[in-house]
Amino acid sequence: MSISYSENLSDYPHKGKVGMPELCETEEDLEKKVALMEQMIRSSLYTVAITGAGVSTAAGIPDFRGPKGVWTLEKKGLKPTCETTFDTATPTFTHNALCTLERCGYLHFLISQNIDGLHHRSGFPLEKLAELHGNVYCEECELCHSRIVHEQSIDSYCLKRTGNVCNTTKSNGKLLKCRGKLRDTILDWEDPLPEHALKMSEANCSKANLCLCLGTSLQIRPCRDLPKRTKKNNGKLIIINLQKTSLDSIADLVIHERVDHVMKLLMNRFNLDNNDGNVISTLTMNPVANIFDSSLYNHVKRIVLLSGKRKSGKDYIGEKLYEKLNDEQQCTLLHLSEPLKIQYANEHQLNGQNMMDSSAYKETYRKDMIRWGETKRLQCPSIFCELAIKQKHLICLTSQHWIVCDIRRYTDIEFFKKYFHDKLLLIRIQSSIESREKRGFIFSQDIDDSESECQLDSNVEWNFVFINNENDIDNFHSQINKLIALIRE
Ligand SMILES: [Zn+2]
336 and 265: one domain? Predict the structure, then answer.
């Protein structure tokens, strides 16, 4: 998508003050101010940051109200000239520094008005990021509000339908795809802000001891009101921006300087080398760059891992368990193969919808996808476990029971053991070859003898072995009931 997407937004007269002079601290003042900033960050128990266009100018993306900003030039009848596109822009020092601060426990939530997706691409954890004005890489389902992240920017804005359809599995007890229509997430001037992102931002600013505003002139509501919540909580406010801002008068520290320059000095003081600064993640959602935060899921009581051969009926059993457990929405169904398929389709520019359907199309790609999945797993063994949880983040945050339908690896089990060891139930589904054949199983070389199909055949201590043969309905139901009792124990 072109960086000058802004000319496609509707006309809007209230763009705030534009073209104000850019100021610059003396080196002496700057040093003192950064020292104070370091102290304030170290003594804060909970810190949020709000970013604006000023953190991305170093990536070649023009701001809006600076001397060469989009709205400043527009007033003069001019347009910005730039060669950068959203797809070629890379995260700046500041984007990476914010990741480092988060990883080291100095930053707890990040709110951005930028749509360039650079926080996302620098590896900032999605569950701690609110993008208030949208993200050029994201589509959102108008029914279930799942977000789908792409490798390339989406050439659509103003929340229009993109023509794509949602393939998220519905959580109503049936394994149906949602099929909702997808829209881009880029807001037009008068569009309301995304409700969840705004609520999270308000809640986090209200409980913060410190709010950092970076590269934003704080002219747009409701963003300009967020730091006031921190002040109301007796928290402190630091503003770093080249131009004066609307909240300078209530800030505890104001630094008029380029954000990257300030962040370099700050990281030096913290003795944090920003070595992530040189690494640009190629996977858009890169859990390798984040530490999995299991403390978000302390409420979980049981995680059921289901394993079984093709056509053993593991999806069906997962669905049955889900139906029985999902009173008061206390259960979530996770499929490790879902993020694998979505990421594979993205990276190979395939049609995600066809990939998810059980069609000849899928068979063509199945073998290649298995190989591709292996390479990704070698880089990060838990990648698909983490992505599956991230994909259903909101549901996972409230569900007491998780059912993971397609465990295939020792590393899948190890991942869940590492974070949820005392909550796990390992279930193996066994089904005779005759029963599987009745359900349509046909042996396929390189698939049914591959590691992903066979690794868990041995050396696992299962908590429960579920015998699932055809024409044994009584036995099926009694085993389901035993399992439910085990899960609720
Ligand atoms: Zn949906």
Answer: no
Confidence of residue 274 (pLDDT cuts 50, 70, 90): low
In a domain, 163, yes or no: no
pTM: 0.56
Structure tokens at 483: 């399992």
SS3 content of the chain, % helix, strand, coil (to 5): 45, 15, 45
Query: Last residue of a domain, which of 240, 257, 288?
Result: 288
Question: Do 467 and 336 belong to one domain?
Answer: yes
Q: Domain of residue 24: give its range.
A: 3-136+186-288
Q: Report whether pLDDT(287) > 80.
A: no
The residue that leads in pLDDT, 71 or 340, is 340
Q: Which of 119, 120, 133, 150 is catalytic?
A: 133
- Asked, for residue 130, whether it belongs to a domain, the answer is yes
196 has catalytic annotation: no
Same domain, 271 and 314: no
Positive or negative CA dihedral for 456, 459, 462, 467? Answer: positive
Q: Is residue 180 assigned to a domain? A: no
The answer to the question of residue 142 being in a domain is no
What are the pLDDT digits (tens) for 418-469? 889 899 999 999 999 999 999 999 988 878 888 778 889 988 889 999 999 9
How many structural domains compose the chain? 2
CA-nearest of 2, 10, 16, 13 to 61 is: 2
**Do 256 and 323 lie in a common domain?**
no
Distance CA 107, CA 478 (A): 50
Distance of CA 319 to the CA centre of its chain: 26
Q: Report whether 331 contacts 324 (CB < 8 A).
A: no
Q: For residue 142, report the distance from its CA to the centre of ligand 1, in Å.
A: 7
Q: How far is the CA of 374 from the centre of ligand 1 (A)?
A: 28
- Taking a 5 Å cut-off on Cβ, the residues next to ion ligand 1 are 141, 143-144, 146, 166, 168, 178, 180
Binding residues for Zn(2+): 141, 144, 158, 178
Which tokens sit at 349? 């520019």
User: Is the distance from CB of 108 to CB of 204 less than 8 angstroms?
Assistant: yes
Structure tokens at 21: 């002079």
DSSP state of 10: P
